[in-house]
Amino acid sequence: MAAPWLVVGLGNPGPAYAGNRHNVGQMVLDELASRSSATFTSHRSRARVADVRLGTLPGGLPGPRVVLAKPNSFMNVSGGPVKALASYLDVPVDRVVVVHDELDIPFAQIRLKSGGGEGGHNGLRSISSALGDKAYLRVRVGVGRPPGRSDAADHVLKDFATHERPDLPWLLDAAADAVEMIVHDGLTAAQQRFHAPLPD
Questions:
Q1: What positions does the entry give for tRNA binding (predicted)?
Q2: In total, how many domains does the chain have?
């Protein structure tokens, strides 16, 4: 039997952070869980998890098994829970998908990749260190850089701006679609779809 997929949504724990740009990965996981009417429960790995079948296969069969995980740790120490879950589920690194905010991508755009650097993202750096490998998949959800000389750390720890909020449901839906397509069709097919110019 094939190993499940492990899809991790990065963010900080607690209601004070829930609407922050830094928590967009966890928002995407909420969308994925809602598609399966699943709820998150506590796991000994220090994460909240939802075990789902993502989408459907030809003939109406349930899609692949996917464990959605939201670490209970703060962003910069996400690696411990991710490593613990990957080990517990026996998930290879190429079946780990991390959904996270990305400053270097404009708001409401999505980019996908496997491996590579962390671009200063402390959550990714922690995961790379804990796994001992950078070859996991990333769904990079664009939040854009702040204007002028505003501090990037402050920017990601603020909620989405008023002018961004109308597009947020669409962005979360698109990022969830990207996760589903990676799981069903592979990274290259998903890149071909989601790296095209997005509609206005």
A1: 17, 74, 76, 122
A2: 1
Residues 135-145: tens digit of each pLDDT: 999 999 999 98
- Cβ neighbours of residue 200 closer than 8 Å, sequence gap 6 or more: none
Q: Is residue 199 part of a domain?
A: no
CA 133 from chain centre, in angstroms, equals 18
Domain assignment present for residue 80? The answer is yes
Which residue is catalytic, options 22, 43, 100, 155? 22
CATH number of the domain encompassing residue 127: 3.40.50.1470
Q: Is residue 200 part of a domain?
A: no
Q: Is 17 annotated as a binding residue?
A: yes
Q: Is 72 annotated as a binding residue?
A: no
Q: Is 74 annotated as a binding-site member?
A: yes
Answer yes or no: 195 catalytic: no
136 appears as a binding residue in the annotation: no
Q: How confident is the model over 77-115, as pLDDT tens digits?
A: 999 999 999 999 999 999 999 999 999 999 999 999 999
